[in-house]
Write a structure and sequence with these properties.
globular, 4 strands, 184 residues, single chain, four-stranded mixed sheet, alpha+beta
Length: 184
């Protein structure tokens, strides 16, 4: 699960103090449907800085499990500021793709390649599931032939998102509409 309202480390640390703050994102087990979810444990997520001279940041991530012992489902709640699968904060990824930070050259090339890739699956999800949720001006601006970069630009224009919050907002929308599809 992605906690879309958690945009910075301070908010995340505050929410970790009470397991119910994050538990509310999981109304029922996605596996068996049972409505009792237990706080299980924490796991560390290491966020790498763009600048290699800076230290990495360890962030505690909350895990929950279904109360039904035979189910065994475990849920991770990731704050919106952390990029899923990229070991970075979204703000750092956004800055690197804009040329404002310098991650390793291979990382930057990979991220730029992903931004230039086809976004038809994203656009399909947005148009079929996002009407009424997402701005109509955004949905009109993207097409099935759009790249991920064009989706990002359209979101910036349609939602007036500040720099450093665009990628995290889009990643949250994607996860809310169709789990498993990634922005990057």
């Amino acid at each position: 699960m992605i906690a879309e309202d958690v945009l910075d480390l301070q908010t995340h640390q505050q929410k970790l103090l009470d397991p119910d703050d994050y538990r509310g994102l999981i109304p029922a087990c996605f596996n068996c449907g049972h409505d009792c979810i237990h706080a299980l444990c924490f796991r560390e997520r290491i966020l790498r800085p763009a600048d290699r001279t800076q230290p990495s940041l360890a962030v505690e991530i909350r895990l929950f499990r279904c109360a039904v012992q035979t189910c065994g489902a475990v849920f991770t709640v990731l704050p919106a500021f952390i990029a899923r699968h990229l070991w970075r904060a979204w703000e750092s990824v956004e800055a690197a793709t804009a040329g404002q930070e310098q991650p390793p050259a291979s990382t930057r090339r990979r991220w730029l390649s992903r931004l230039g890739s086809d976004a038809s699956d994203l656009v399909q999800s947005f148009t079929s599931l996002g009407s009424g949720v997402l701005e109509a001006s955004f949905l009109r601006e993207v097409s099935r032939s759009s790249t991920r970069r064009e989706v990002v630009r359209a979101a910036k224009r349609a939602f007036s998102l500040p720099f450093g919050r665009v990628f995290s907002a889009i990643a949250g929308w994607i996860h809310r509409l169709v789990r498993g599809i990634r922005l990057m």
